[in-house]
Write a structure and sequence with these properties.
Oligomer: heterotrimer
Low-confidence stretches of chain A: 1-10
CATH superfamily of the largest domain in chain B: MetI-like
Radius of gyration of chain A: 18 Å
Low-confidence stretches of chain B: 1-13
Number of helices of chain B: 19
Chains: A alpha/beta (266), B mainly alpha (438), C mainly alpha (494)
Shape of chain B: extended
Number of strands of chain B: 3
Mean pLDDT of chain A: 88
Number of strands of chain A: 11
Helix content of chain A: 25-40%
Mean pLDDT of chain B: 86
Order of helices and strands of chain A: EEEEHEEHEHHHHEHEHEEHH
Helix content of chain B: 55-70%
Chain lengths: 266, 438, 494
């Protein structure tokens, strides 16, 4: 265990550990972005990654489904496991991994296709549906889970880009759900949205937790407090403190966490 | 399958692996990648094939076979009646090729040749010898009766044979060079009297129907005049138009129309510009056909859109803060442009201009229509004289039937591509050297 | 007075005006430049601009208008029976009179009097001065030629007087206006702005020029060949053009030329589109920066090679290669070694043109593909799509409008391409679906109708303008539509 991390007094070891990062180091070319990060992600919980901008929280998130592979100069060392299997092992297939660990991005990025096609995209490429009716059911179920179905059921064939920002982001969530992942990674999913749309998404995240493990990067402490059960605080590429959200926000151990929460850094 | 969504709800245990058809999908991925690499490879192969064709057929054009002859300026042949003092035309009309043939005959040690042999001997030496020897004698009349060693051009087919380009396994009557001539070439070669020399004529001679004498001198001069005319017209007009459109023009229908217009003109087939030039400059303005002035005017119109588009991009790359700074210290808009924006955009403008000029240098079709397909043996002294252009010269040579012209065509293409390469490399260096990151 | 000397005199006036204006400005401010509204040089430039530009504009206008005025005046001196001939013949006679006038200028007055008396002396006398006449000429022609000379001389004299006079007047006007508070810089800048605006209208003038010349010459063509025969005719057989002979009837059917043009363009697109598109996708989505930095410029070298070089490549390499290989194949297949592909054929021209178009397709598509936002790529990769799935199902559909625009631009290039088809497609105007045989194109026929000696009155020559107009409107339509699509596409992602 890295000495830098002050482990919370409240033990989270009773929760099933879905994913785990151990001694994760990430560098872009000469610049190191993460230093020996250890995080445990509990199943069916929302884990929030918080910290000032440029602290490495998004970098860590992108390591969890190997999105960093798409950047040539990015180098990752250490171990990250999913259900106790190393996801950076040579035997692991990145496509399969991403089908299990889906991702929702900062800016809503629906494809320039119809709403139906947006959601059906994942099942189609992965060959998850056996028939047309099957596919339609998957789309409907995913949209229902994303809380969008009632709003779009009459215009499934209209382009997804025509929806409002909040609806677009829920469409992207539905798109991720349709692949039936175990884990959903969310990279500041509300940063481009207005407060009302944000509230809707936050409620949705809380509901999704029953079926999925969720990791969310957010720059808003209030949001972390509202939606997450566990919180990790990053600062300058280091994991400063990790524990339950209650503990981090009420009784932070590290001075830097304290400063961040009270608004002195950030 | 429909209840598989529910299956994942037991997320606290390890989910079973799903069959995602990975094998098939990765095969498709590999095929797709292979298509991409294949496409690039095919493109590069064509480039290599094209360059290989040109270079392999053309590099020999830079050397031309010459034969060393001990020429005796025999008065009996040139002026048997000794009347040259009264009638200077005798020296002009004399049978100089006979002198060369006699010299060759004695060099090969041929006694009393028959008519067919004489004909083959004549076929060894380029007809250019007539002018060459005449000029020698006219500039130095004391040569009369003397003997002098002179390198004369070999005839085109002899040149090909000496370069090993003629297939000797073909039956004698089906090839251009006879067995006797091959024997003579070997004979001369063993005596060191036949050699390949650097082909200055290729660069300096005018048009000729005989391949060994044909050169692209008139074409190079014509192309040079045209580039000059394009440069002095297209650069100022292009820059002025771009400055107006970028810096001064209000955004309205009129400037929008100009904008669309310029983009369209860049895509109008060049041959249409040739028709415009024919109708406007030759038919209405009565400028002379085949003149490099007309060619330059037409090429200016073709090049303008390219220069305007490049200049506008260069102007746009100058950050607005520079403009604000200049206006802030009380410069007028015109001063802001001429003192600050234009100098900063100059490298970009020059790069665009060079690329435009390179495009104009390779342009052929419009020049055909304004009559530059001309047999121009003399150098054009002014842009109003009949001239031709490098690419047009290539076109004319490509249409010649004789095989020796294929070599010359390729040689001319090499020269043209060299010019283009130099211009483009200059543009790249300019861009690299002065590229500014704001 | 020659045009050059008029120009030089005006230039001298302008330069003198520059110095005069500058010193007047300085002296009016007691030698202190700070007392002036503008820098002293601006006052000089102000006078210079007035002394130079209005007279030059007048000169240009004069030179444009005077030839037609003179030609009307001269034509009216012709005998009535000549004037009533058809316009083509009149213009031929006018040409003769022009050359006679050229010749007479070189003769001395005595010779001119002799010639006026005896017309048979005209031809030999002019021939001595290097001017060859087609006919012996007639007496009225000499009279007209003399009128022409005197009219032209008068015109030139008037021009000199007017231009120099106006230059002086303008310089004086500008000089008078100079005083310390005079805003010289603003006035000079107004001149400059006028210059800039004039330069920017050249683009419009070029289009108008193309349009006007095409329409007038095509109009003349349609006066001898009905438009329906041109646009719907299926036979191209123009016969030969001969001077003054407008009666020889040829058939000018556009259809076979258009068919050849479109067929060759189609073959070229079939070569260029898959290769160019796959190359663009690979370079935008897969290639390492090193490979990209090498392969991209190398492919673009293909775009910098003049089309005449491609034509030569087709003529000496590709055509013979296809011919020989087809003979080999025929030999293996049927035992009869006969080539079924001609050296000049639709396939040869299309293949080589396709090679030329590869870089156009690839760099245009590359630009468009890289404009698709990265977020879309991430969205697809983030839920487990492979790269090729992302490209095929997300990026290409998103880029489709832009790519269609790019392909239309490429097609317009293929249709207007000239040198490759001149050397590789052949000159046989016929309609065929066999790509192994020669066909010809609109551009080839424009070139072949306009090379050699021209007679601007015969339909054989004028048909080139009708073909050119067809080509212009065809490519214009494609370009306008393609540029519109690409522009809309850019705006979508900006």
């Amino acid at each position: 265990m890295n000495t830098n991390i002050k482990q919370a007094e409240i033990d989270i070891s009773d929760q099933y550990e879905k994913m785990r990062g151990e001694k994760v180091n990430v560098s872009y070319g000469d610049k190191q972005a993460l230093f020996d990060v250890d995080v445990s992600i509990a199943a069916n919980k929302v884990t929030a990654l918080i910290g000032p901008s440029g602290c490495g929280k998004s970098t860590f998130l992108r390591c969890l489904n190997r999105m960093n592979d798409t950047i040539d100069i990015c180098k990752v060392t250490g171990t990250i496991t999913l259900d106790n299997e190393d996801i950076y092992a040579p035997s692991v297939d990145v496509v399969e991994l991403r089908a299990r660990v889906g991702m929702v991005f900062q800016k809503p990025n629906p494809f320039p296709k119809s709403i139906f096609e947006n959601v059906a995209y994942g099942p189609r490429i992965h060959g998850l549906a056996n028939s047309k009716a099957d596919l339609e059911e998957m789309v409907v179920t995913s949209l229902q889970k994303a809380g969008l179905f009632s709003e779009v059921k009459d215009r499934m064939n209209e382009p997804g880009t025509g929806l409002s920002g909040g609806q677009q982001q829920r469409l992207c969530i539905a798109r991720a759900i349709a692949v039936q992942p175990d884990v959903i990674l969310m990279d500041e999913p509300c940063s481009a949205l207005d407060p009302i749309a944000t509230a809707t998404i936050e409620t949705l995240i809380d509901e999704l937790r029953e079926k999925y493990t969720i990791v969310i990067v957010t720059h808003s402490m209030q949001q972390a407090a509202r939606v997450s059960q566990n919180t990790a605080f990053f600062h300058l590429g280091e994991l400063v403190e990790f524990g339950t959200t209650d503990q981090i926000f009420t009784a932070p151990i590290d001075q830097r966490t304290q400063n961040y929460i009270t608004g002195r850094i950030g | 399958m429909s209840n598989s969504v529910a299956d994942t709800s037991t997320a606290s245990s390890v989910t079973k692996k799903r069959d995602l058809n990975l094998k098939k999908r990765y095969a498709a991925e590999r095929r797709f990648r292979a298509m991409g690499i294949g496409a690039i490879a095919i493109g590069l192969f064509f480039l290599a094939a094209l360059l290989f064709t040109v270079v392999s057929k053309g590099y020999t054009a830079f050397w031309q076979t010459s034969i060393a002859l001990e020429i005796t300026f025999d008065e009996g042949v040139i002026d048997s009646a000794k009347k040259r003092v009264e009638d200077p035309n005798i020296l002009l009309m004399a049978n100089y090729p006979r002198l060369a043939r006699n010299a060759l005959q004695s060099q090969l040690g041929l006694e009393k040749p028959t008519k067919p042999i004489l004909k083959q001997l004549d076929g060894m030496i380029s007809n250019g010898v007539r002018v060459q020897l005449r000029e020698m004698l006219l500039s130095d009349p004391t040569l009369m009766g003397k003997t002098q060693k002179v390198w004369v051009l070999a005839e085109a087919n002899i040149d090909s044979a000496f370069k090993g380009q003629i297939d000797l396994s073909v039956a004698e009557k089906n090839r251009k060079v006879s067995d006797a001539q091959i024997g003579w070439i070997d004979d001369l070669n063993s005596k060191g009297l036949i050699a390949q020399k650097f082909n200055t004529g290729l660069f300096f001679n005018g048009a000729s129907s005989r391949p060994e004498m044909a050169g692209m001198g008139a074409a190079i001069i014509g192309s040079f005049y045209m580039m000059l005319i394009v440069l002095i017209q297209a650069l100022p007009i292009g820059v002025a138009a771009s400055v107006y459109l970028e810096e001064f023009a209000p955004k309205n229908r009129w400037t929008d129309l100009i904008e669309v217009n310029i983009n369209n003109l860049a895509a109008v087939p060049s041959i249409v510009y040739g028709l415009l030039g024919l109708a406007l400059f030759i038919n209405i303005a009565h400028l002379p056909r085949s003149a490099s002035l007309v060619g330059g005017l037409v090429l200016t119109l073709i090049t303008l859109p390219t220069i305007i588009i490049a200049t506008r991009a260069a102007l746009r790359a100058v950050p607005p803060s520079i403009r604000s700074a200049a206006l802030g210290v009380g410069a007028s808009k015109m001063q802001m442009v001429s003192h600050h924006v234009l100098p900063l955009a100059a490298p970009g403008i020059l790069t665009g201009t060079i690329i435009g000029l390179a495009q104009a240098l390779g342009e052929t079709a419009p020049l055909l229509l304004i009559g530059m397909v001309a047999f121009v043996a003399d150098f054009p002294l002014t842009p109003l004289d009949p001239a031709t252009a490098l690419p047009v010269q290539i076109f004319m040579w490509a249409n010649e039937a004789e095989r020796a012209f294929v070599e010359r065509t390729s040689g001319a293409i090499i020269v043209l591509l060299m010019f283009l390469a130099v211009m483009n490399i200059a543009a790249i260096i300019l861009r690299k050297r002065f590229e500014r990151r704001w | 007075m020659s045009l050059l000397s008029i120009f030089l005199i005006v230039l001298c006036i302008a330069i003198a005006g520059h110095f005069a204006g500058r010193s007047k400005a300085l002296s009016s401010a007691n030698g202190k430049a700070s007392g002036l509204h503008s820098l002293p040089a601006y006052y000089g430039t102000y006078v210079l601009s007035w002394a130079l530009f209005p007279p030059m504009a007048l000169m240009a206008l004069w030179l444009v208008i005077s030839p037609s005025v003179i030609s009307n005046a001269i034509t009216s001196t012709f005998p009535v029976e000549v004037q009533s001939l058809d316009p083509a013949k009149t213009s031929l006679i006018y040409g003769t009179v022009e050359s006679i006038a050229d010749g007479l200028r070189q003769l001395n007055p005595d010779q001119i009097t002799e010639v006026s008396k005896d017309i048979s002396l005209l031809k030999p006398l002019l021939a001595e001065n290097g001017i060859a006449l087609a006919s012996d000429g007639e007496a009225y022609m000499v009279t007209s030629a003399l009128t022409m000379i005197s009219t032209q001389n008068t015109s030139r004299l008037l021009l000199s007087i007017f231009v120099i006079g106006i230059s002086l007047l303008c310089a004086f006007y500008a000089y008078r206006k100079i005083e310390p508070r005079f805003r010289a810089r603003n006035r000079v800048e107004r001149f400059m702005l006028a210059g800039l605006i004039a330069a920017s209208t050249i683009a419009i003038l070029t289009t108008l020029g193309i349009f006007a010349s095409m329409v007038t010459e095509t109009g003349r063509f349609f006066s001898s060949v009905p438009p329906t025969e041109f646009f719907f005719g299926i036979t191209w057989d123009p016969r030969f053009a001969s001077a003054g002979d407008t009666g020889s009837a040829g058939q000018f059917g556009l259809i076979p030329l258009l068919a050849g043009t479109l067929y060759i363009a189609l073959v070229a697109m079939l070569v260029a589109v898959p290769i160019g598109l796959y190359a663009a996708i690979y370079m935008a989505e897969y290639a390492s920066p090193t490979l990209r930095s090498i392969a991209k410029p190398l492919l673009e070298v293909l775009a910098g090679i003049p089309t005449i070089v491609y034509g030569f490549f087709a003529l000496v390499t590709v055509g013979p290669f296809l011919r020989d290989i087809s003979a080999q194949i025929a030999g293996i297949a049927t035992g009869d070694v006969a080539n079924f592909i001609q050296a000049q054929s639709v396939l040869t021209a299309g293949l080589v043109m396709g090679i030329m178009l590869i870089p156009f397709v690839s760099s245009l598509s590359d630009d468009i593909i890289t404009q698709v936002p990265g977020a879309m790529r991430d969205g697809s990769l983030g839920i487990g799509a492979t790269r090729s799935e992302t490209v095929r199902r997300v990026i290409l559909p998103a880029a489709l409008p832009g790519i269609v625009g790019a392909l239309l631009l490429t097609a317009s290039r293929a249709i207007g391409e000239t040198m490759i088809v001149v050397l590789a497609a052949g000159i046989a105007a016929r309609i065929s679906i066999n790509p192994f045989e020669p066909m010809t194109t609109v551009t080839v026929k424009i070139v072949s109708q306009l090379t050699g000696d021209l007679e601007f009155t015969s339909p054989q020559t004028l048909v080139a303008f009708a073909l050119g107009m067809t080509l212009f409107f065809l490519t214009l339509g494609l370009n306008v539509y393609a540029l519109y699509i690409v522009r809309k596409y850019r705006e979508q992602y900006e």
